[in-house]
Every structure is written in C-alpha cells, then in structure tokens.
Amino acid sequence: MAATNVGSYEHSTAKLHTVAIKRMAIHAIIFFCFIGLWEFGSRMGWLDPLFYPRPSAILHSFWLIYVENGNIWFHLYATMSLVLFGWIAGSVLGIALGSLVGFNPLVRRFLKPYVIVLEATPRIAVAPLLIAALGFGSMSKIAIIMLVCFFAPFINTLSGVVNVNEDRLELFRSLRASKMQVLRKLVLPDAIPVIMSGERLALTAALSGALVAEFIQRDQGIGSLILVYTRNLNMASAFACIFTLTVLGFLIFKGMEMLDRYIAFWKYEEGRVRISQKRREKMKGTSHVG
Amino acid sequence: MSDRIKTGNLKNQGAVPASDANMPVFDQLFDLALRLLPHLALFIAIIAVWEIAVATQLITSIIIPRPSAIGGAIVELYITKGTIYRHFIVTFSESVLGFCIGAAIAVGLAVCSALVESFRRYVIPYAVVLNVTPGIALTPVIIAWFGYGMGSKIALAAIISFFPIFVNTLTGLTQFDEDREELFRSLGASKVQVFAKLRVPAALPLLFAGLKIGLTTALIGAVVAEFAQATDGVGVLMSRFSFQLNMAASLATLLSMTAIGLILFYSMEFIDDQIVFWRRESRREEKSRARAKAWKKRAGK
Predict the structure, then answer these.
(1) Which terminus of chain B, N or C, has less C-beta within 10 A?
(2) How many domains does chain A have?
(3) Reduced to 3 states, what is the DSSP secondary structure of residue B81?
(4) CA dist., res. B102 & res. B154, Å (int)
(5) Where are the domains of chain B?
C-alpha cells in the first residue's frame, strides 16, 4: 500500500514537472510572439519607432546605458540612496507616531479628522511646495520621500495597535498579565505583520516619491534621466530606464518579502520551524552546561 | 471592523453614538455640537498658535505662510477671482475618466481571469510586471505619447489605478466559501447562478475596497502628470504658485486637491454603502425591512 502510494507520488511529481515546463514554454512563446510582432510592426512602419521603440533598440540602449556609457549607475545610486534614507526615516517616524497615537485614545480622537483630511490629499502633490520651501537638492527630495513614506506605516501601526483581539485581551487580563506582557505577547505579534505590510507599501511609494521629486527638479537620478531621454525623443533609452525600474521594483518586492519572513517569522510555517529549532538547540546547550 | 483595515481608513473606529430616533431634533443637534466643540477648540488653538508664531517671526512666512494669508488666498481663488474652478473641473474629470477606464479594464480582465484558469495564468505575469514598475515613471513617456492635453493625464490615471482594482477583484472572485459552494451545488445551482449569487456578492466588498484605492491613486496620477507638463489643472496651478514662492496660494490649491480627494472618496463610499448594503448592520436591516414591505404588498394583491 505504502509502496504504491510512493510510486504514485513520484509519478505525479514527474507529471507536475512536465506540466510546469510546458507552461513555462507557453509563457515564453507568448512573450516572444509579442516581442516579435512589435519588432515586425516597427520595421514594417506600422509603429512609429520615434514613439514606440523597437525591442532590439531597447536592448541596444540597455547595453549603452549600462556598459558602454555606464551613465545609469550614477543616477541609480543617486535615486536609491535617497529612497533608502527617506524610507527608513519616514517609516521610523510613522511607526513612532502611530504607536504613540494608538496607545493614547485622547490623542487618537483629536487626530482623527486631520488624518482623514491628510489621507484624502494626494501626498505626492506636496512635492512642489516642499521644493519651494527647502530649495533644490537632496534635502527637499528626502523630505518628499519621508512624507510619502510616513503614512502607510503610521496608519498600519495605528490599526495594528488598536485592533487587539478582545477575547484574547480578556484572557490575558484574567491571567493577570502585566501591561508589558500584553504588549509583547499579544499586541506586537498581531501588529508586526500589519506594520510590515505598511512598510512594503511605503517603500514602493518612496520610489514613486523620489521619481516625482526628480521630475520636478531635473538634476540627477533615474527620474530626471527618463525625463531627459523622453524630451530628446530617445524613447529606447527611456524604456531601458523604465524596465530598470521594473527590475528594481521587483527586487524591492522580493526584498521586503524576505524581510517580512525574517521579522514576522511566526506568520510562516518554515519561519516557525526555524525559530523553534534554534530555540531547542539553545535550550539543549544550556542543559548541557547545567 | 476588520474589513476596514484593508481599505486603510480610520473613519468608523471612533465610538459614534447611535442616533436615537425618539430624540428631538434639537437635542440631537445639541449633542452633535457638544461633541464637535473640543475638536473645534483645538483647531482654532492650532491656527492661533501658528498665526502668532508667524507674526512674531518664529517661523519664516516665506516657507510657512500665515493661516490668515491662506484664508485670503482661498477667498481670492474661489470667490473674488474664481480661477480655481476651471482647473478644479479639469483635474476632477481627468481623474474620474482615467479611473473609469482603468477600472473597466481591470474588472473585465479580473472577471475573465477568475472564470478561465488558463487566461489567468497568462495574464498575471504581465499584471505583476505592471505593478512592480512604479507607474509614475511612465509619466514622461505617456506625455510624449498622448500629448500635453487631458489625454495623457487620463492615461496615467488609468494605468496607475489599474492594479489595485484588478488584484482586489480577482482575489474577491477566487476566494469564496467552499462550504457555500457545496451547498449551491447540492441544491443544483447552475454555473451562472453560482457566479452571480455566490462569487460576485462575495467579491463585492473587496472590489469596492480596490475601487476606493484606485480612485485615490487615479487622482495622484492626474496630478503628477500635470506637474510634469500641462496647461490646465490643479497640479499646474499649484506648481506655478510654488515656483512664484506664493506659498499661501499654493497651500490653498493643495486644499482643493484634498477637496477633490474627499469628494471622490465619499462618493465611492456612498455607492459602496448602497450596493454592499450587507456590510453594515443598520443598512442591512433597513434593506431587509424595505424588502419585507415590498413582499407584503405583493402578497396583499
């Protein structure tokens, strides 16, 4: 019985494998058909290459901006350093204020109307104001990124702290848990995953905020590079920059997922296993010493 | 309350006392005024401190203008000169049109992908690629494609608002209660019935959460595209004012964007409340009472 089970299992994995390969192949075929059609249409003159660059032209400009001229590295560095700095500063501020407001019902009551108004305002729209107030340069860019980053962690920290499971809280209270224990063992384990999803939103918003700031300032960074390339109708290079941002966005997404798995490990099965194994080993070590 | 988190707003978290139908109108008004009073006092106090701080040169008035100057700018923009209305309408219609286009495409694709599994498989990678690309990065390209007029703003608003709506609709349509589906099947429901009576109602709350997010992002898209290049719109007006260092007028324009955002958000909230009536207790009861009345009437005939 067991043997047949194993056999069928192996059989099904092999089947799954071939299905997966087949699907990947279909994906690739669709993708290349699309690219081929685009290239063909462009070469036939149906698509104006001035506005809709050919895939081959985009590939060539990837080569140009990364290797031959290598001018994108400088701009990438300029943008990403600001994004990281602004993100960290903004989210620290957001989490701090969010928990302050969350633990204080009076402040929460009085702050609510302002939060509603702020939420409805497109925050990126403050960019020209901040640039006028703080001048051109990285100061105003960081301020814009911080402002854009601040809100998601703030709201999520607030709702994570406020939305405590009432039944559990009652259990904690009936077992006479201290305030610190309630915070550490009840509030934070539920709030941290919510805060992390806020951080993820914030980092994506940070990139957008940096781009808008660069569109307005037009000095350095990917945003201004895209703007300059488009103004010169060098669309292929502009698209190369945009696809760079796609890759960057993907890396941000994956990076935040990894960070989430590391920090909020109790949400994931393998994280729980990893941490419990670690703790078990630690316990073993102390018992040996003892 | 937990479904409020997804939409990311805090509106219904405060303890709002249920309005008693038997209470006289005057008492109700008095109660409301009493509750609003501390808020109003705080607001006036903040404004006063701000005004004094600017008047005594604690804050430079070039960077942060006086509240009275902002008030003056609002009066000028809205009443004496009335310049804002043209720009207001332009931005408003850009974001609404962009949102409608984005939402139509998003909901259409999401319904197709929810119904046909293979379609979903081949659409999702492209949707994800579109999502991880910061949509705002497309601004210069979109402007080159669609020109300096309203077209480019509508296009950017549509692109930016697409993904949240798509994802929420798709999740809503694919995540439904298995037990309920079994009940539907055991009662011999057709595929159309399962879709219309089970999957769509289950998806609607999430769909509306997505629509609300999409509407706010559509406004952002329209405004950012206006910053980049435009002739009309609140975004242009605001960047013009800030580069003239006319901060008071610039802030007044920013407040008009808030007004657009609030109008858009609350209209969507209203539609949400009308369509997804079962989400809120009071609305559900109201609706069921209305239906009971209708049924009674029919039975009486």
Answers:
(1) C
(2) 2
(3) coil
(4) 9
(5) 86-284
Say what percent of chain A tops pLDDT 70. Answer: 94
* Token code pair at residue A82: 């600001």
Output Rg (C-alpha) for chain A, integer angstroms: 26
pLDDT exceeds 80 at position A1? no
Query: Does a structural domain hold residue A285?
Result: no
pLDDT > 70: percent of chain B:
92
- The answer to whether residue A258 sits within a structural domain is yes
Report A:93-152 residues touching B (Cβ under 8 A). 108-110, 112-113, 115-117, 119-122, 124-129, 131-134, 152
At the topology level, CATH places domain B86-284 in MetI-like fold (1.10.3720)
State the pLDDT at residue A288: 58
Range of the domain at A23: 15-47
Q: What ipTM goes with this model?
A: 0.82
Angle, to 10 degrees, between the axis of helix A222-231 and the axis of helix A235-263? 160
What are the residues whose beta carbons fall under 8 Å from the beta carbon of A189, sequence distance 6 or more? A266
Give start and end residues of each alpha helix (H) in chain B: 2-7, 25-55, 67-75, 84-115, 117-132, 139-146, 150-174, 178-186, 191-193, 200-228, 234-243, 247-275, 281-300
Work out the minimum CA distance from A201 to partner chain B, whole angstroms: 11
* Residue A60, both tokens: 């060539």
Q: Which of B39, B67, B70 is nearest to B53 (CA)?
A: B67
- The span from the CA of B7 to the CA of B69, in Å, is 35
Supply A237's token pair: 């290079």
Q: Are the beta carbons of B10 and A207 separated by less than 8 Å?
A: no
Place A3 in a pLDDT band, splitting at 50, 70 and 90.
very low
Does pTM surpass 0.90?
no
Q: Which residues of chain A have a CB within 8 Å of the CB of B122?
A: 26-27, 30
Give A189 to chain B, closest Cα distance, Å: 17
The string of pLDDT tens digits covering residues B87-111 is: 999 999 999 999 999 999 999 999 9
Q: Is A130 contained in some domain?
A: yes
Look up the CATH number of the domain holding residue A106. 1.10.3720.10
Note which residues in 260-289 of chain A have CB less than 8 A from chain B: none
Average pLDDT over residues A161-188: 87
